[in-house]
Amino acid sequence: MSSLPEHLPICLPAHCEPTDSQREFLLNTQDSTHGVRACAIMSLDGSSTSNGTSGALGNTVDQSILHGLRAWADVIFVGAQTIRSENYKGAVLDERTQLRRKRLNQAAVPPIATLSNSLNFDTHSPFIHAAAPPLIFTNPHQTSIEHSTWRRRRHALNEHGVTIIDIPNLTPQACIKELKRRGYPRITVEGGPTTLADILHHNLIDTLHLSISPRIQQPTTHPLFPATTSYTHHLQLEATATSDDGLLFLRYQRRTR
């Protein structure tokens, strides 16, 4: 029989930063030196956004989990559409966290990685001008745009310090495997739903941090787990916590058998 999950025996204030011990309970990253973790939030009816963004579903505790996973990660993987629609910014870490990462032989700030056939990114966006230049996986043989346009976009991104990586199989699961091969053992996946669905489908998530917002909003928009194909994976619930505005925080581990 499996053991019962741990539960944080207090109701966290929704708009206050968790203490260090509370944050470590939520994350459990202290002795974790590798693995793929996913961080996601949804409403009770499964929507991954409210008013177009995932942040509108969360609170300070949820944001603290996101930032804690960024502080742990070697790289942050995000789908290109999520980067565009949410005006994504790079990770911002305080000086103490950066020094701790350097002592662990990590880069001071983790880069964001994504994949794109079109390379259609605004070179003035905060995503491009993050403290750690992003990584973009692409495949010139899979693009549907004019090759001259593709080459021009690639050149512009290179000029802004972006690393472009050609990969023969341009899928989220292939990108995750390539990131590991390139020396990024700690990977945090932040969405969006299509990206998360692909990686879950191939059973590559070791730990899933799932926040559930106590709201029902119809119609359900952008479901967090879109039905792209048929599969079943069983997860083991490790820990739970709540905040005083009703958000539920769950940490699941991939079952190995």
Automatic annotation (TrEMBL):
<dbReference type="InterPro" id="IPR002734">
    <property type="entry name" value="RibDG_C"/>
</dbReference>
<dbReference type="InterPro" id="IPR050765">
    <property type="entry name" value="Riboflavin_Biosynth_HTPR"/>
</dbReference>
<dbReference type="Pfam" id="PF01872">
    <property type="entry name" value="RibD_C"/>
</dbReference>
<comment type="pathway">
    <text>Cofactor biosynthesis; riboflavin biosynthesis.</text>
</comment>
<keyword id="KW-0560">Oxidoreductase</keyword>
<feature type="domain" description="Bacterial bifunctional deaminase-reductase C-terminal">
    <location>
        <begin position="37"/>
        <end position="217"/>
    </location>
</feature>
<protein>
    <submittedName>
        <fullName>Riboflavin biosynthesis pyrimidine reductase</fullName>
    </submittedName>
</protein>
<dbReference type="InterPro" id="IPR024072">
    <property type="entry name" value="DHFR-like_dom_sf"/>
</dbReference>
<keyword id="KW-0521">NADP</keyword>
